[in-house]
Amino acid sequence: MDHTEFVRGGTGLSGKDVEQNKIFTVDDALNCRYTWDTGVAIGRYLEELKNGKIIAKKCNKCRRIMLPPRMFCELCYCPSDDWVYVEDTGVVNTFSVCQVNWDATRVEPGQNPHLPAVIEIDGATQGMGILHLLGEVETDKIFIGMKVKAVWKPAEERTGAITDIKYFKPY
Amino acid sequence: MRKVGVVGAGMTNFIRRAQETPKELSYQATRAALDSCDLNLEDIESVAHGSAPDAFDGIHQKGEYLADGCGGWNKPTMRVFVGGATGVHALAHGWYHIASGMFDTCLVVCEEKMSSAMPHAQAFFLTIFDNITERPLQPTLLWIFAMEMNRYMNTYGYTKEDMAKVAVKNKNQGIKHPSSQFNEEVTLEDVLNSEVMAYPVNRLDVSPVSDGAVAVVLAAEHVARRVTDKPVWVEGVGWNLDTAYWATRDLYYPRYLEKASKMAYDMAGITEPAKQIDIAEPYDPFDYKALHHMEGLQLSPPGKTVELLNDGHFDQDGNLPMCPSGGLLGVGNPIAAAGTMKVAELFWQLRGEAGERQVPGKPKYGVCQAWGDLMQVSSVAVLGI
Amino acid sequence: MGLVERINKNIDNKYWDSDEVVSFPVKNRYTAGLAGQKFLEGIKEEERIYGTSCPHCQLTFVPGKLYCERCFAELSEWIDVGTRGEVYTYTVSYVEKDGTQKESPSIIAVIKIADGYLVHWLENCNPGDVEVGMEVKANFKPEGERKGSILDISGFQPA
Fold first, then answer.
1. Mean pLDDT of successive 10-residue segments in chain B (385 residues)?
2. B73 touches B43 (CB < 8 A)
3. Which CATH number fits domain B4-116+208-384: 3.30.1050.10, 3.40.1280.10, 3.40.47.10, 3.40.228.10?
4. What are C's interface residues with A at a Cβ cutoff of 8 A?
5. Does the complex come out with an ipTM higher than 0.85?
6. HSE-CB for B282 with a 13 A CA cutoff
């Protein structure tokens, strides 16, 4: 028995078919705006970022110092305990040099590529990383294990957001 | 738990932009699956369908919308959604419909139409990141794959060339698949010289965006033996989710996949997967992921996988053929349907019906796997004949 | 309470607005599909409404569909079902999406045609004149204005 006869359907279209209105389409956008409650833990996280500090939360059972802070430890499945301030320095666990924007357009020539990284923050449990950006560094000089420090926005520009830290740079 | 067999499979072509509506795509795949085993809708007692983010098709109760195209009119129908892992998860979902004794037959259908998403399907992935602590950084899905690939290569000293070999192997193998989006071969140079997306990922390291649907028919043992003389048994299923705080895990090893595969192997009675599994279909949205998953599936010792790849161990006629279908890299990647494509592939392979892609010898056990979300979830199924 | 309620002021970082840093200008482009294409061509080119007929279930679906959901047969018989239908149910809307009053109320009806239905506006009549079971007929826009959309019919009016 040959399986190819049960592979059928799926009629291909080209971009031109749509542009020339040979194939009828309807465009629609969701156009939604959300206002989320930050919750107790992230609310405090953002507040401390506005103060120029990074705060984590401890689980006394597994002894992890968790970042971002959370009201319960998802591994032990119990409420978390003390608030703990951590450093604003860390180590690059992994990184990328991205030439593509979030909407799949390419970074313009002359513009800097995006430099996302997972940064293990000093003071939190080993391996506890957060996603952030790198800056003030040449792309071919970045390496896994690189030590970095946060570059903050000036106090009057901070609003209580993860972007109160502009990026991390090597030191 | 009752024994469950796969008795039929059908799929649409995987293409960049389909004219069909998502319902029509599901219908085409489901009709083909029913035709392949000479069954009709009245023989089907339940439907287990899967489709990943509603945002791609742009219909925000996609399960209900797709239901009649999947044969679910007036029947017990249930949808699953675990991101990219949906394709194999839907098989597990259909499996327990029958294994529990509730139903004797079940249609498992997965569909995805990504071409509706404008400007580009990638843009919609912005919303899978944490809304407060990650989205303001304007991340894209490429970031997490690139960073995982970087960490993986760095941990074992693999090179981009090693990873690119998987892209070449799968893309050229996929040309043999009737549904494939491609018909031109690629070389190692093509892959390494393709444009840089996000270091270390180049354009040809990635699978394409596709539209498509795949369906398989499941039946309880006594029905399966009547419908076909070569039922393929679902020997084991497993699934596992890890923490959503993806940056708190070291990305070089998928521990959630190890747990999911252990669950499936235990159920199947497989104690030495690397020796007992004859065909592997790991999920390969990116070339390095196929190797990453082979290690998580316990089919290759971490750190030694590239050596085995270079020795031809994973070729179609090697000791452990990997992705004889051509995988997502070679056939196409409609998010949910891609996993079920792997199930259909094992179905055809184990019955000796895979044509040009047929693995020689008489393969007895195959494992297929799908992965999804923020480096978080895997579903695994072991099929045997 | 209005249709739309918005939290506008962020107190103590208790709320995070999705538009705060990144707006999300994406959209979906839906194709009419294999059957939908034929259905809309009938409206655009011929000012006709077509359905598909399932010989097994003895049903004619409007708009025409690729397959019968009941017996799963592929449908290839396209039938001209005329341009008239019957009001199956209707409602009258007085308020816009943002809560403001409409200039004149709009009537939306489910119009039964053969064994299927179309949802569309009722025009050239007052809300008080509409009755369930009332016969209505389609008004097509002039040829130059038709694009291959359900809106090529501007609405239905009492026959």
1. 96 94 95 96 95 85 92 94 93 96 97 89 86 90 93 95 96 95 93 94 94 96 96 96 89 94 97 96 96 96 95 95 96 94 97 95 96 88 96
2. no
3. 3.40.47.10
4. 6-7, 12-22, 25-32, 34, 36-37, 40-41, 147-149
5. yes
6. 28
